């Protein structure tokens, strides 16, 4: 899974697109534009920074500028995957937010979006018509319709912030070697990962790599890897699936010791896996 910088080449401040197909494009990527996503139909796993969680029909997400993300469709979903996506010029929104109090909601969304936002599903269903109207409006009207949607979204109190502040602020996604390592972790965290393999991947010895990784992420390699695995375990434990036992969440997240998993889970989350459920 390679992290791609996508250039949208916006000829206007708002770029509208829609997708319908068997599954969403599995592409770990980032871009300077904000991305507003309405999932018309589909389900799967969403990656935003170090966040790993589920997405499903009627979900709405706002992903900030230059935040790596990917929508990975579930293989067992029956039916077409469909989405409405709006890419928003960051500088345009920032200038709007400076025009007066009536645009303060834009400043709030810009600030919160740097971690990625998921809006309450029940509230999101109210936006179904607004997004479909957006799909049908002329190009000149899409900016106004998008601002209308953003304003309505800003009124929702129940929203989830996705990626951690530490991940967003401390990791330099423009660094090719760090990118290479993070890409490998995100693709392979469910499997055993050897430190010497990672070090060789970026042409370093283990000592130099550990020092370099901590300088660029503010975390040791083991702590970073454990954090990704625990986030995925949380995703599994949240799912309404009786087969997702604590033991299964442990081993399916890449841990090979249940006692070690329980200890790291409590350290990272603040409670035992049994209490989290």
Automatic annotation (TrEMBL):
**What Gene3D superfamilies does the record tag this protein with?**
Homeodomain-like, Jelly Rolls
Alphabetized PROSITE patterns for the sequence: HTH_ARAC_FAMILY_1, HTH_ARAC_FAMILY_2
Extract the Pfam families matched here: AraC_binding, HTH_18
What InterPro entries has UniProt attached to this entry? AraC-bd, Homeodomain-like_sf, HTH_AraC, HTH_AraC-typ_CS, RmlC-like_jellyroll, RmlC_Cupin_sf, Tscrpt_reg_AraC-type_HTH
Span of domain HTH araC/xylS-type? 179-277
Q: Name one GO molecular function term.
A: DNA binding
In this entry, which stretches build a coiled coil? Answer: none
What keywords are assigned to this protein?
DNA-binding, Transcription, Transcription regulation
Would you tell me the protein name for this molecule?
A: AraC-type DNA-binding protein
Question: What is the native source organism of this protein?
Answer: Maribacter sedimenticola
């Amino acid at each position: 899974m390679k992290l791609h910088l996508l250039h949208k080449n916006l000829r206007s401040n708002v770029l509208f697109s829609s997708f319908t197909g068997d599954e969403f494009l599995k592409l770990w990527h980032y871009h300077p534009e904000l991305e507003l996503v309405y999932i018309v139909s589909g389900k799967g796993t969403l990656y935003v920074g170090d966040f790993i969680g589920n997405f499903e029909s009627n979900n709405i997400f706002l992903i900030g500028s230059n935040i790596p993300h990917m929508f990975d469709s579930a293989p067992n979903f029956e039916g077409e995957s469909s989405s409405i996506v709006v890419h928003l010029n960051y500088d345009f929104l920032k200038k709007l937010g400076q025009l007066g109090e009536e645009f303060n909601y834009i400043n709030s969304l810009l600030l919160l979006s740097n971690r990625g936002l998921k809006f309450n599903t029940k509230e999101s269903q109210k936006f179904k018509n607004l997004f479909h109207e957006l799909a049908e409006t002329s190009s000149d009207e899409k900016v106004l319709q998008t601002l209308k949607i953003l304003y309505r979204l800003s009124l929702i109190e129940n929203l989830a912030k996705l990626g951690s502040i530490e991940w967003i602020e401390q990791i330099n996604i423009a660094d090719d070697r760090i990118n290479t390592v993070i890409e490998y972790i995100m693709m392979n965290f469910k499997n055993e990962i050897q430190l010497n393999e990672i070090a060789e991947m970026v042409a370093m010895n283990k000592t130099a790599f550990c020092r370099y990784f901590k300088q660029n992420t503010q975390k040791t390699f083991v702590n970073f890897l454990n954090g990704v695995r625990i986030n995925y375990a949380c995703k599994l434990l949240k799912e309404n699936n009786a087969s997702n036992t604590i033991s299964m969440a442990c081993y399916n997240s890449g841990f090979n010791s249940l006692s070690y998993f329980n200890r790291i889970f409590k350290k990272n989350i603040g409670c035992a896996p049994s209490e989290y459920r």
